[in-house]
Design brief:
262 residues, alpha/beta, seven-stranded parallel sheet, 7 strands, globular
């Protein structure tokens, strides 16, 4: 199936590992030119080089922190300068720590807002004008199942990621006339380093093993397994494609059916 993405320019944040990296790989496999960023320079450039060689495509990589608006602006400008514009932007950042409400400090809240909400605004401000000029664009946020179903001990994520959904709806309404689609993808329990951190936290609190945590999450899903980063990435790439040309302002869960609502 031709997704119509060949030679499109896709920016993917936090793409040195996990879901972000899988997303960058999927875009490259579809013939996109890819711009990647993450905080760890060594890990990022290693991932970029592997994608460049495996898919024989152009990859631009820059290490910085997405909570720095000036750095985001520089990255977008550099990627657009290298590739002649920006077509797709996928925002992403490491999730905040697993804590209950009273254990969260005000600094924890500030960091969660900067990493998981304000960074999305920084990217949107920079990429939307490029998309308006082309009258075509895809802006996709990566959040969590917590946007639909709060998860115990993830109060920071539960609260802050809901703000991203409000932003997605607002941007979809405002920029649809410009040919820009804005959507959110919410992964469920997916086999990433982030999930291993949550398993460790839960295991320490309960006296059970980390493996017990993984098995419990898998058992709670109708598919009886955890998700894989590539499965989330495939959904992101589909939303960015011409095959999803009448979908905007939506949250698509990739959770194996674990969300219990209608």
């Amino acid at each position: 199936m031709d997704l119509g993405l060949k030679n499109k320019v896709a920016l993917v944040a936090a793409s040195s590992q996990g879901i972000g990296r899988a997303t960058a790989e999927c875009f490259a496999a579809e013939g996109c030119r890819v711009a990647m960023c993450a905080r760890n320079q060594q890990t990022l450039h290693s991932a970029a080089e592997k994608i460049r060689k495996q898919h024989n495509t152009e990859v631009f990589a820059e290490a910085f922190d997405v909570t720095d608006p000036a750095a985001v602006s520089h990255f977008v400008a550099a990627a657009a300068g290298n590739f002649g514009g920006v077509d797709i932007c996928v925002t992403n950042a490491g999730g905040p720590p697993a804590k209950g409400f009273l254990a969260c400090t005000l600094e924890d809240w500030r960091r969660a807002l900067e990493a998981n909400f304000l960074s999305t605004i920084y990217f949107a401000r920079e990429v939307i004008p490029h998309m308006q000029r082309k009258r075509w664009g895809r802006f996709i946020t990566l959040t969590s199942i917590t946007t639909k179903q709060p998860v115990a001990d993830l109060v920071l994520s539960n609260a802050v990621r809901a703000a991203v959904v409000g932003l997605v709806k607002s941007l979809a309404n405002e920029f649809g006339k410009d040919g820009i689609l804005v959507n959110n993808v919410g992964p469920g329990f997916t086999a990433t380093d982030r999930l291993r951190e949550l398993a460790k936290s839960r295991a320490q609190a309960s006296g059970k093993s980390e493996q017990d945590m993984f098995e419990a999450w898998a058992a709670d899903a109708p598919l009886k397994r955890l998700g894989e980063p590539r499965e989330v990435a495939d959904t992101v790439v589909w939303l960015a494609s011409d095959r999803a040309s009448y979908i905007t302002g939506q949250t698509v869960l990739v959770d194996g059916g674990i969300y219990k609502g209608l």
